Predict the 3D structure of the following.
Amino acid sequence: MDKKSAKSVKADNVPKLDNQLCFALYSTSLAMSKVYRKLLPPLGLTYSQYLVMMVLWEQNELTVSDIGERLFLDSATLTPLLKRMEVADLITRTRAESDERQVIITLTAHGDALRQKAAEMQGEVLCATECNLQEMLAMKEQLVALRGKLARNA
């Protein structure tokens, strides 16, 4: 095979960005974040803070590691975020009496009061997707299943 033919074969084997599942997921995540970036300022939350708040609205008084498990984040990533949320009067952080290595995260009254405003925002998110509810739920189920498969093989 001559050099020109070899270069042609190599160029044809180069992965194309638009053919990659990873890029479709990444760029979709960026687009979803932009939707939330537009909706969250009235709540005074960043997207990461919003995710933490959703976990706490489901179940208050969780350890940092419990929250990290739900959000797939380690404590080194989560701790600075939680400190900023405490300064913003969204949560409190207290050491567990039974084990001082554990930090319990609890919603403040202000943090809990944001729950209703956040619930009202969900319709706007659905509208931004231009999907109906059944399409949205089916897509979410597929993504959760994919996440599980990827986690098993990572």
Observations:
- The two ends are 38 Å apart (CA to CA).
